[in-house]
Amino acid sequence: MKNPDLITLSDHDLKILLYVWKWKVVTTSVLYERFGQEFECGPEAIFKKLKRLQKYLHVKVVPVTKPRGLAWGINDKGFTTIREFLPELKAAGFKSENPNHDLNALAAQTSIQNKVSDIIENYELYTEQELRRVHDGCHPSWVPKNFPHIPDGYWFFKSENEFCIVALETELSKKSTERYTETLIAYNHQDDINSVLWIVEEETLANFILKSSNYRNQDSKNKHHFVLLENLLKDGVDAECFAGTKAGHKLSEFLFPKKFHPYFRITSASLPSPNTHPALDARAYQTKSTIYSNPRKAPDRD
User: Fold this and answer.
1) Alpha helix locations (H) across 27-86?
2) Kindly report the CA angle at 277 between 272 and 280, in degrees rounded to 5?
3) How confident is the model at residue 137 (pLDDT cuts 50, 70, 90)?
């Protein structure tokens, strides 16, 4: 007799579960963008796969308010299933402590992917989940070692013997002056990190960070640059920093190995607007979604 609690997982199911673990929380739309072509299916089929995984307690629905709607997170059973496919872990875990932050961090970190992947072949992205959970000895060789702070992720760009490591900080809420001071000082003493990109929703938060940390534009060791989340999602590598040592400069002018700068200058790209970025499209799926047509039906979560 068939056990109703057992599920036979396909390769597609495993890839979805591993991706959800990597980012902690995802939307149906971002899974469709990532796997739709590979799986040769539409968003409705991705949604059905998620519903099946939910039925067997491998994933769960995660209500979010920024954007308003529903996202997906992994469950205990799902984590147990994929554990053998993960590198050695120093800390077992998978849950999102702040789904709204993690969803916006996903959008921000993947916002340049379409443009960069066409130009820079050696491009890697390493997430906060991987930094926090994976054993240090299993990190890619380029990941900074013995760094006391865990960012929201890293971008890594390489061209022959030239490479850049960019730490990403998605700040949606204000923290203490002391915390920002410690973080900026730690970065300034970490020579392995070329730049730190702070992604904020409002300029006032950037000003608070800079002021509280006794920031000095003339400090040659200061590697901190600030960009608005809205502009990053809309313009990708063409987004301009509004504060820091590179204020007024596009990301493409200083984040990447110099070999690639001419390519960014002659190619223009505009990624989806903040309202349509897949990571921030919190509809159940892209058609026939009552949540999308009537956002008031999405559950509140304070």
Assistant:
1) 28-39, 43-55, 76-82
2) 160
3) very high
Q: Which of 55, 40, 158, 150 is nearest to 105 (CA)?
A: 150
Helix (H) / strand (E) element for 206: namely: helix 203-212
108: nearest Cα among 21, 227, 238, 206: 227
pLDDT tens figures, 180-219:
988 988 898 898 998 999 999 999 999 898 887 665 544 5
- pLDDT of 27 > 90? The answer is yes
Q: Using CA atoms, how far apart are residues 260 and 256, in angstroms rounded to an integer?
A: 7
Evaluate the CA torsion angle 244, 147, 182, 127 in order and state its sign.
positive
Q: Are 272 and 233 in contact (CB under 8 A)?
A: yes
Alpha-carbon distance of 182 to 284, in angstroms, equals 40
Whole-number Å distance between alpha carbons of 159 and 144:
18
If one counts every other C-beta atom within 10 angstroms of the C-beta of residue 49, the result is 20
Closest by CA to 208, choosing from 161, 245, 247, 175, is: 175
Beta bridge partners of 69: 64
Spans of all domains in the chain: 11-89+281-297, 112-266
Axis crossing angle, helix 43-55 with helix 11-23, rounded to the nearest 10? 80
Q: What are phi and psi of 82, to 5 degrees?
A: -90, -5
Reference 104, options 71, 145, 137, 79; nearest CA is: 71
CATH topology of domain 11-89+281-297: Arc Repressor Mutant, subunit A (1.10.10)
pLDDT at 298 over 70: no
DSSP secondary-structure letter at 297? Answer: G
Calculate the CA 91 to chain-centre distance.
20
Rounded Cα gap, residues 36 and 57, in angstroms:
23
Structure tokens at 164: 């850049």
Beta bridge partners of 163: 158
